[in-house]
Amino acid sequence: MTDRNVPAGIPNDTISAQIVAIAATRDMASFEALFREFGPRIRAYLLKLTRDGQAAEDLMQETMLAVWRKAGQFDPTRGQASAWIFTIARNTWIDAWRKQKRPALDPDDPALVPAAEADAPTLLELKQRGAALHEALKALPEEQVELIRLSFFDEASHSTIAARLGLPIGTVKSRIRLAFGRLRAALEEKK
């Protein structure tokens, strides 16, 4: 059985030897021979995939450059050399296709614009709220402060908190509700 990607008259052993020579000594003559034989076939293959002559030419060049760079990764015992080269071509095309499908970065996208600096009255209000929260937390028992810290500040799930504290999940939920209710009441008193 012959590989349909292998040019007529060139045995797979010769192609494998060329790739091994490129890997071992960066043999330019072997690379040129490989390029002459596979360049047109890869271009034709990529032209079928892209339907764009310039894109096929560019991707063929990228493929052959990858063959040069990755020659040391080729293992003749794992398969045909031509299959290895065409796999690189296919992967190069897939990478190019994925890049093409990504939307262009819009520098005016609101998600990329940094938030405006808060003005002095807003900063003062935030600072006062933070101080009130710290004072209200001091009024709670340490166990309830720990539950609030784990749940709201560390964003641990109820099951994680239950496992960490060795409590049933229902107990954790009811204690968090109780702690949150006491915290709300303490904050209301501060107003």
Summarize the structure.
This protein is mainly α and 191 residues long.
- Average pLDDT rating: 83
CATH topology of the largest domain: Rna Polymerase Sigma Factor, Chain: A
**Overall SS class:** mainly alpha
Question: Looking at this structure, what is the CATH superfamily of the largest domain?
Answer: RNA polymerase sigma factor, region 2, helix turn helix motif
CATH class of the largest domain: Mainly Alpha
Domain module count: 2
**What's the total helix number?**
8
Which descriptor suits the 3D outline? Answer: elongated
Order of helices and strands: HHHHHHHH
Could you say what the CATH architecture of the largest domain is? Orthogonal Bundle
Strand count, sense and barrel status of the largest sheet are: none
Keywords: DNA-binding, Sigma factor, Transcription, Transcription regulation
InterPro entries: RNA_pol_sigma-70-like, RNA_pol_sigma-70_dom, RNA_pol_sigma70_r2, RNA_pol_sigma70_r4, RNA_pol_sigma_r2, RNA_pol_sigma_r3/r4-like, WH-like_DNA-bd_sf
Family: Belongs to the sigma-70 factor family. ECF subfamily.
GO molecular function: DNA binding; sigma factor activity
Q: Can you describe what's shown?
A:
- It is built from 8 helices and no strands.
- The model is unreliable at 1-7 (pLDDT under 50).
- The protein has helices at residues 12-25, 28-50, 53-70, 81-101, 120-138, 142-153, 158-165, 169-190.
- Helix 2 (28-50) packs antiparallel against helix 3 (53-70), helix 3 crosses helix 4 (81-101) and helix 7 (158-165) packs across helix 8 (169-190).
- By secondary structure, it is mostly helical.
- It folds into 2 domains: 12-101, Rna Polymerase Sigma Factor, Chain: A, CATH 1.10.1740; 133-190, Arc Repressor Mutant, subunit A.
- This is Sigma-70 family RNA polymerase sigma factor.
- GO terms for molecular function: DNA binding; sigma factor activity.
- Residues 34-102, 136-185 form the RNA polymerase sigma-70 region domain.
